[in-house]
Inverse folding.
């Protein structure tokens, strides 16, 4: 897999002696100490982590901050376009970005299964650090637990994150970027094609072979969002399109804001190979998870300008206005298809893609 | 078990319809929505959580903040004196307290195993909220993942926390409460008897029966620490005595500070039933986990005053000065026993008590 090429640094834990994670690596004794001092601290190395205390401390100027958490249980751990480590960084960075904040600090909590290959952990940890550097965040505190073989599944990672809300748009004085701010007349922007992360993982799991490998869209979205804010775009709400995909994100917002959202099917970009994989597996790309896609609700008057800003960034090159918010009726998401018929896009009731993130 | 009595509020999710956690409860669709809206939001209810956004936002006055994380994988989920929910709150609150900060906000990340009883989750969630109220923190953001049966173990919980460092002791200007601050001449304070949490859990697991049930010492330590700081006690370092117990905490600090710590065995309080249980299982209470015990290094001149402050609080009623820091030699922890002989207290190399927190 492509990721292998980047992992040229050899593992600092002597793999011939400790080829696998033992229960003692979570026991608070010498082996856990070796894991922290040998692998985590030098890899994530920063002054705050180096203090080696129960909690990291940092100076924050007064203001508004965002705080979020996500656990990552994706299977397989490595997939085209990413792995659980980069996903755990990007996912939390994106949640911070969705609150309009600049991601600053992450925590990392590992739940390892006894018998996990040390080499696998090493690859994941390096990938986390590379992703953190790319997203300009520091991993400043962490924790490791080990559970018996058969009581976990390789690696679970939790990351929590802190970001600083820097924008001071007059229209947002005292108000949040939040679902409750969405208003009739807002246009709905999407930064690119949907369904790639979910289908990259399902293609590996189901052994589907395509001409080109579908790669996850996993990416940190903060710089894109901060560009919009820096240019003075009024963002009423944003959401990244993870579990449950575009359809679920829109339904959550429609319900929280009590509004009707109408989309235009022909404007929603879906790559041909993703569409093909969805058809083979009987899935609807509207419900498939993404890890580098988000929607933003902005006033109609600012829509075209916001679109141009998004398109000027590689992560938003295929951005589109895909819909709008109608006069307040009931909480509803509808889609107009290519022949003009409207259908209701409901929230998923069952489970479509387990362990996707 | 005693905890049952407190759970008088009936579960807001219709248990007859959803007696167990399904994969779909983590899928981003209707069932996950129901879990969040029905159980988590009303139970942890606060204005920040109510915004229902990807990240919670909060106003922080400028200053120094602490940030920490811990995952909790304890088995059994319920034990005398606590459960995984209260432990997940107290443990993270205590890590924030150890940095000398006032705990403010927590995140909660759940990794649930398919088939988990809904009733069990409900008990844990209520216990978390009760513990949060007691510790005066708010759970303001969260995440839920579900893994297939046999890929987890009931419930794993990650909590991350943010605390405000409020103390402005002149001697600490620009310096942290951190291992590197410990100095020769410091005395070592302990707030009570050791080994109870670990032995409470081991007694349940091993089916040991004693006249009285050993109860975990799990408790939030922040108010105790904040009292010391408010009274102007100079705290060079603190650490809570979780995994690896007193011995491991002291070894970590001795190594980080490059100092020798000497303890007096006769001054370390261990309850008789805990000592008995340790002997039956061949364990040393010095290495057994606690969840409501901490050590503090303070200058000798302030030792007695600090002791008096600790003893005035129920959580420190049995506090003692158990040792001191010698002139800098090598990084070493030693203990003088009742007949005057000194022995080296090493860091644990193997695994003593798995899944204790």
């Amino acid at each position: 897999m492509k990721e292998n090429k980047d992992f040229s640094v050899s593992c600092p834990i002597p793999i011939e002696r400790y080829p696998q994670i033992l229960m003692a690596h979570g026991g608070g004794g010498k082996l856990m100490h070796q894991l922290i001092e040998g692998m985590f601290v030098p890899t994530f190395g920063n002054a705050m982590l180096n203090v080696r205390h129960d909690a990291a401390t940092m100076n924050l100027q007064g203001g508004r901050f965002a705080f979020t958490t996500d656990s990552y249980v994706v299977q397989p751990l490595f997939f085209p376009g990413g792995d659980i480590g980069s996903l755990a960084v990007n996912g939390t960075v994106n949640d911070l970005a969705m609150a309009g904040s600049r991601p600053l600090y992450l925590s990392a909590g590992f739940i390892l299964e006894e018998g996990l290959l040390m080499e696998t952990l090493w690859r994941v940890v390096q990938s986390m650090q590379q992703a953190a550097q790319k997203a300009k965040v520091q991993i400043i505190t962490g924790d490791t637990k080990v559970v018996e073989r058969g009581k976990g599944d390789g690696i679970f990672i939790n990351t929590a994150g802190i970001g600083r809300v820097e924008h001071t748009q007059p229209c947002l004085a005292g108000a949040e970027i939040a679902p409750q701010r969405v208003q009739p007349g807002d246009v709905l922007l999407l930064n690119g094609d949907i369904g790639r992360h979910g289908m990259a993982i399902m293609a590996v799991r189901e052994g589907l072979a395509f001409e080109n490998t579908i790669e996850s869209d996993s990416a940190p979205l903060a710089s894109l969002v901060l560009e919009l804010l820096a240019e003075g775009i009024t963002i009423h709400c944003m959401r990244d399109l993870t579990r449950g995909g575009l359809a679920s994100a829109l339904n959550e917002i429609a319900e929280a804001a009590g509004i009707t959202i109408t989309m235009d099917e022909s404007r929603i970009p879906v790559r041909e190979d993703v569409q093909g994989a969805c058809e083979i597996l009987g899935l609807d790309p509207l419900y498939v998870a993404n890890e580098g896609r988000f929607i933003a609700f902005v006033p109609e008057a600012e829509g075209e300008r916001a679109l141009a800003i998004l398109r000027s960034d590689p992560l938003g090159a295929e951005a589109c206005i895909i819909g709008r918010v109608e006069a307040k009726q009931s909480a509803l998401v509808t889609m107009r298809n290519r022949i003009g018929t409207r259908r209701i896009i409901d929230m998923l009731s069952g489970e479509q893609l387990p362990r996707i993130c």
Q: What stands out?
A: Chain B touches chain A through 89 residues (CB under 8 Å). Chain B is about 30% helix and 25% strand. Chain B has three domains: 15-45, 54-165, 179-344.
